[in-house]
Amino acid sequence: GVALARATPARATAALRPLTTQPPSSSPPIEEDAPQPKEPRFASLEDLRSHIGRDLGWSAFIDITPDRVRLFADATNDWQWIHLDPERAKREGPFGGPVAHGFLSLSLVVPFLDDVVGRPGGVASLVNIGVNRVRFIAPVLVGEKLRARFTLLSLEDTRDRRGAQATYNVECWTETGDKPAVLVESVIRYLR
Fold first, then answer.
1. Which pLDDT does position 28 carry in this prediction?
2. pLDDT for residue 21
3. What are phi and psi of 191, to 5 degrees?
4. Residue 178 to residues 96, 124, 175, 186, Cα–Cα distance (Å)
5. What CA dihedral angle connects 94, 97, 103 and 105, to 10 degrees?
6. What backbone torsions phi and psi does residue 4 show, to the nearest 5 degrees?
7. How far apart are CA 155 and CA 51, in angstroms?
8. Residue 158 and residue 163: Cα distance in Å, rounded?
């Protein structure tokens, strides 16, 4: 048989300890410190509900820079050459250059949603519940810009009636794409 090494609790705890206890000085503000819009786009959840089935519009573009891709690689331990080695990606890859991680593109749905929908009036906070479907349709090359278009599919009150759960159809497109890069059905819970 093969002997398996067991981690001691002290080793396991040490492995989970952060490298630093201080956030980097360039870290983004936490939600409470982040600038909030003066006027919400939607006056209330009922106002948002009146837009079920409608196109809510496009977000601003986000640059998919080499630094953004490197930070994502570091955060996820996914350092594959197709994302990080421009020369090799150009020479050996199927896309003519390095591409962003699919999950990097997917993770941008949250700031895209904030840009398009924001926080409706009367909502204290919102929680990203998850996704129902995701498809990575086309590559997002490093150096491209990405944005998203949202359609509100549903908005249902929670059982306790203290909030509502929305489902959005999201299409993420590059600036030059002829088809979406990512299709996702995103689920968000709004809490009053």
1. 52
2. 35
3. -115, 130
4. 17, 38, 9, 22
5. -120
6. -100, 130
7. 9
8. 5
